[in-house]
Amino acid sequence: MNVNETLLFFRQNMKFTQKEVLPYHDTSAYSRIESGKREIKMSELTAILNKLSISPEEFISHSSLDDDQKKFRQLFEYCATHLANQSKKKELLHYYNQLENIEKQSLKERSNFIAIKVFFSNHWSEVEQVTKEGLNDSFTYLSKKSYYVQYDYTLMSNIIFLLEEQQAELLIRRAIPIKDEENRNTVTKQFAYNLITNLITSKLYSKEYGKVQDYLVLAKKQNPKNKNYKYQMTVSYLENLYLYLTKGDYTYIKSVYDYIHILHTIGEEQLSIMTEKEVEQLTLARTDSPINTMKVN
């Protein structure tokens, strides 16, 4: 539903008349808003939500303010898990070609275009890899900003592992911790959270433990009131894994497996399996690993 359709939905379901919803305005004016013939002002929307006692979050969750992007994400995710589906592939490639022909892409368009390139260039011949020029253009754009929004974080997440180390480091130091976190929406915060935890994981694989330590410090500066328990648990898991790999203390690996057990208990079965495989890959190189000890026994 768009904004006017959402207004109609709530008003009718809550049994309000048009006059009751916006009492100090002409009824015909409100009718034009609901029918989509007139744009609604922010002051008017605020007054309506107050009258209906609806939070902005609940209203937005019912309205499709960015329906096209929602459809893109659904199509992208479907194609990523059904690479051989030709009809959906054709649909995504059509959108990709449209983006490619736009001379000056918006931030959202650039972010989507790069996302398609980064993932599908490894699977579909029709999609080319991100060029060095394209990477540098995206880096230059991001490096000039001091306040990052959702599509900045999306773009950054897609290119960060392709950048030169100095470029990646500069962006991370600017983007993490996310500024103004209390006022950010859930999706934007999740991209910021995933960006730093994915980086920490990659540095664990490459055994760049100094970087891991630095990034853990940055990661802990986010989610200051621990409202996002999943993020808090993930950072704690990564820290315990790092401490085990660098110190070899069994206490840390026990905490890692406690985390995996919790994932299993709360129904995150796939994530628990993936995490256990990740731990095995990272710890089997240690000759004193408790996993090795258990396998020998």
Quick summary of this structure?
The chain has 297 residues and is mainly alpha-helical. The protein is built from 17 helices and no strands. The protein has 3 domains: 3-62, lambda repressor-like DNA-binding domains (434 Repressor (Amino-terminal Domain), Orthogonal Bundle); 66-175; 208-297, no CATH class.
Describe the structure.
The protein is mostly helical. It folds into three domains: 3-62, Orthogonal Bundle (434 Repressor (Amino-terminal Domain)), CATH 1.10.260.40; 66-175; 208-297, no CATH class. It has 17 helices and no strands. The protein has helices at 3-13, 18-21, 27-34, 42-52, 56-62, 67-81, 86-100, 107-120, 132-143, 150-159, 165-175, 186-205, 209-220, 229-247, 250-265, 269-283, 290-296. Helix 15 packs antiparallel against helix 16 (269-283). The longest helix has 20 residues, at 186-205. The model is unreliable at 289-297 (pLDDT under 50). InterPro entries: Cro/C1-type_HTH (IPR001387), HTH-type_regulator_Rgg (IPR053163), Lambda_DNA-bd_dom_sf (IPR010982), TPR-like_helical_dom_sf (IPR011990). It comes from Enterococcus ureasiticus. One of its GO terms (molecular function) is DNA binding. Residues 28-59 form the HTH cro/C1-type domain. This is HTH cro/C1-type domain-containing protein.
